[in-house]
Amino acid sequence: MLSRVPQMMRLATGSLYRLVAYSPRHAMSQSLLMHARQLCDISTQPIIFNVSTAEEFQEQVLESSIPVIVDFHANWCGPCKMLGPRLEQKIQGRGGQILMAKVDIDEAAELAMDYQVGVVPTVLAFHGGEVVTSFQGTISDEEIDQFLDQAIEGTST
Question: Looking at the keywords, is Repressor present (predicted)?
Fold first, then answer.
């Protein structure tokens, strides 16, 4: 289909590139333009971001139209330092299908208490504003992939 479309626009989000096709004469131009606008809206939000207040959590996690993984961690936590970069790499590899919010429990203790985080790292997956799955501690790369799949699908464990 792209070969029939005369004009292409490239939209960039950091290192994430998306190709969006649009042609004023193309029969599907309105739907393609709407899709392009949706991609622009999505691209304004970073894939991985920090959350430190209840208001940010509400807006960026609970109200997100895209599933969000929330990594409750601490700077002094050794397992958190091992898990965090692995999660980030896996999230970035999903091409915007899922986002990641990082919550430092020392800076956002109320959020940690709201979600009964007693151990770090604790990772919760939100889909449609609800927790669909979670884990505590470190897990293998294969288990991370399964966890992300469940989060994207919105299925509970």
Answer: no
